[in-house]
């Protein structure tokens, strides 16, 4: 059983490293995505935002959400974003209706 937990710890370590690498490689676009997320939170009830909201806002700002690649998983990283414990089905066709988290901005 200890082996299972060792593997889980290693998996989490690799996930964190992968996210950090992706975020570093796409930093300029990730910064734009985070700006979009904050802007969305200013106009939505309760300051809530999802990755679908970010994708739409980025499109309106002439950026491609798809170009974030794995860095998209880092948009809501940071203490200013809190997961509401809610999930909704994504409306983006490329997401095939998978469940996405609803986040609330608590910065500023």
Q: Could you list some keywords that capture this structure?
A:
108 residues, alpha+beta, 3-stranded antiparallel beta sheet, 3 strands
Describe the structure.
This protein has 108 residues and is an alpha+beta fold. The protein has three helices and three strands; from the N terminus they run ααβαββ. It has a three-stranded antiparallel beta sheet with strand order 1-3-2. α2 (27-43) packs across α3 (51-60). The longest helix is centred in the N-terminal third of the chain and has 24 residues, at 2-25. The protein is globular, with a radius of gyration of 15 Å. It starts with a helix and ends with a strand. 22% of the residues are buried.
What's a quick, concise take on this entry?
The protein contains 3 helices and 3 strands, in the order H-H-E-H-E-E. The chain has helices at 2-25, 27-43, 51-60, and strands at residues 48-49, 81-89, 99-105. The model has no long low-confidence stretch (mean pLDDT 88).
